[in-house]
Design a protein that fits this description.
Shape: globular
Order of helices and strands: HEHEHEHEHHEHEHHEHEEEEHHHH
Number of helices: 14
Bound molecules: iron/sulfur cluster
Distance between the termini: 22 Å
Helix content: 25-40%
Length: 369
């Protein structure tokens, strides 16, 4: 999936990623489910007509974003392929994040591709069945997930693997990277836990451990045949910038494992409300799925107007308003810290990233690209 070159002013007007949670319904009960998935669709789920209208509106952004059909399990939605087809007709690039259930068959992937899906997002949270299945809450999930990856590769579909890092799998970063190495994966997206609720606090890794994780991810970004990016850990960008001068960080000569996608070095920071927006199954509009600050509701509110003009979105795009270290950090324009974690931990989405150990240098020039 191409990574368009955006400028800061583009992001004031257009998101890069638009996540549409087409349903909350899912047959799984995963431990860290953002959607608090239910077996049945919510009665207020947007109808087919409303979903088509939402897609039409998304297509009116000056630079239309990548539209990610997510859930719940999007395959639980009967009209999913019609919605994908409509988005494709409107010129939107689309992605799909199916859950690891019996619905995720090669036939379903083929239909998704025929409808226009350009990339699948598949979750893998452990390097072995014990770890992954414990995370996902049912035995057999690991094998099914590997089967989905293999089916996508056989169909020549681009895949982004999504991994949530917590204390439970922190020591498996290298092992997961190896599991992915020969599976034709295009991108490894590593999500760092946003602690919403007390149970999750114990699973949160320590701020210093992020640096260890970043070191391993940066190693794999340079040596594996897929790109690596982080979600809710933009300080990985700061880590990479700090270490590009390190000779050990230079791409290995002669290796065929050059990173295919260098978006971890993209010149602009993308974060909740700045390049990212989210609309829930019932039309609620948020800066991101993990930042539940309600900013509007489709169809009463326009997603385009909300993205551009809602004060919360505008504040999130203004790093000079951030608190603490993030607000004075020279990396605030390309990192800015996780706004979702700041909100989850402090109740203030503009507070400093709670899980960054970096101490800003008051004499350094501000890094803008
Ligand atoms: S202090 Fe904030 S802006 Fe600076 S590197 Fe850390 S998270 Fe990023």
């Amino acid at each position: 999936m191409p990574h368009p070159h955006y400028t800061a002013s583009d992001f004031d007007l257009n998101p890069l990623m638009f996540y549409y949670e087409v349903t909350q319904a899912c047959d799984l009960v995963c431990k860290h489910c953002r959607a608090s998935a239910q077996e049945e669709p919510h009665p207020e789920e947007l109808s087919t007509a409303q979903s088509l209208a939402l897609i039409d509106q998304v297509a009116t952004f000056d630079r239309p974003p990548i539209l990610v059909f997510t859930g719940g399990d999007p395959l639980k939605r009967a009209d999913l392929f019609d919605l994908i087809h409509h988005a494709d007709d409107r010129g939107l690039m689309t992605a799909l994040t199916p859950s690891a259930t019996p619905l995720a068959t090669p036939e379903a992937f083929t239909r998704a591709r025929e409808a226009g899906v350009k990339r699948l997002g598949i979750s893998l949270d452990g390097a072995d069945p014990v770890t992954h299945d414990a995370f996902r809450g049912w035995e057999g999930s690991f094998e099914r997930t590997l089967g989905m990856l293999d089916a996508a590769r056989d169909l020549d579909m681009a895949v982004q693997v999504n991994t949530s890092i917590t204390r439970l799998n922190f020591d498996q970063i290298d092992a997961i990277a190896e599991v992915l190495a020969d599976r034709g994966v295009a991108m490894w997206s590593v999500f760092f836990l946003v602690p919403v609720g007390r149970g999750m606090e114990q699973e949160r890794i320590k701020p210093a451990e992020y640096e260890t994780a970043f070191e391993r991810l940066w190693h794999h970004a340079r040596t594996k045949p897929y790109g690596v990016k982080t979600t809710e850990a933009p300080h990985y960008r700061r880590y990479v910038l700090q270490h590009q001068g390190d000779p050990l960080a230079a791409p290995q000569q002669g290796t065929r494992h050059a990173p295919r996608d260098a978006s971890h070095r993209a010149p602009l920071g993308v974060w909740d409300g700045r390049g990212v927006m989210f609309t829930s199954h019932n039309g609620e509009i948020y800066p991101a799925g993990f930042l539940p600050l309600l900013c509007g509701r489709f169809p009463e509110d326009s997603v385009v107007e909300t993205y551009r003009n809602h004060p919360t979105f505008r504040d999130l795009r203004t790093p000079d308003k951030f608190g603490g270290n993030c607000g004075r950090c020279e990396y605030r324009y390309i990192c800015g810290g996780s706004r979702a974690r700041a909100w989850a931990v402090t109740g203030d989405a503009l507070a400093s990233e709670p899980d960054c150990i970096y101490i800003p240098d008051p004499n350094a020039d501000v890094v803008r690209s």
